[in-house]
Amino acid sequence: MMLFRAPGVYRPQFDTALLMQAAEAAVVPAGGQVLDVGTGSGALTVAALRFGAQRVTAMDISRRALLSVWLNSLRWPGRVELLHGDIRHVRPRDRYDLVLANPPYVPAPAADGAARSARAWAGGPSGRAVLDPLCALLPQLLRESGTGLIVQSVLSDPVRTIEILDTGGLNAEITARGTVAFGPVLRSRLAWLEAAELIMPGQRDEELVVIRARHRRVR
Q: 20 to 30 Å CA-CA from 94: which of 22, 135, 139, 206?
């Protein structure tokens, strides 16, 4: 699938593909409403439309990302809402059948998070600067029968993600895994990651997981 991507917009990578596979397996109901948090170029928004979603709200802190989504979704007129903002500060208005989230989850020095170029991936020293508030908010974003899907690295503590979701009244579990070699971002921060004891000496790959969450009353 060829997508337009404005300069500086996060490029769809292994995490996007892993989340897309989970989204397809989730099955969007006919007339379903989807929220795509951290949409980037809109790869998951387009996938949700192709999987049958009636409407997708594509959310991102980058205006260039939203421009990319708009261009990539022109064949589905009127079915995509663009929402500019950070999930920590801007709350979507509706509840959704499916929430897809590829938030910034890479552990990184605090200074990285201040750089505009790092906003798509830098998740603070623990990798959880966005994950924690997202997990706390997710129960309010899901309809009773809705499904939330979050992709993250094991470096940013998926057990913590499950704990927060559980506290919020959701059943959460890891439903997909995949291992990928470190990209340029992690390779350039090896010394910091080792000093923070987030990776083992000599480690050069990371495991990514998709966590699925549903309201407990849904079986």
A: 22
Give mean pLDDT in consecutive 10-residue pieces for the chain, a chain of 219 residues.
90 96 89 96 96 96 97 96 95 94 93 76 94 97 96 98 98 97 93 94 97 83
Q: 200 lies in a domain?
A: no
d(CA 17, CA 134): 21
**C-alpha–C-alpha distance, residues 98 and 51, integer Å:** 12
CATH number of the CATH domain containing 142: 3.40.50.150
How far is 186 from 188, CA to CA, in rounded Å? 5
Query: For helices 63-72 and 43-51, what crossing angle results, to 10°?
Result: 30
Asked whether 149 and 101 are in contact (CB, 8 A), the reply is yes
Place of tokens 């949700």: 48
Expressed as residue numbers, the domain containing 100 is: 14-182+208-215
8 A C-beta contact, residue 26 and residue 53: no
Q: How many domains does the chain have?
A: 1
Question: What pTM did the predictor assign?
Answer: 0.95
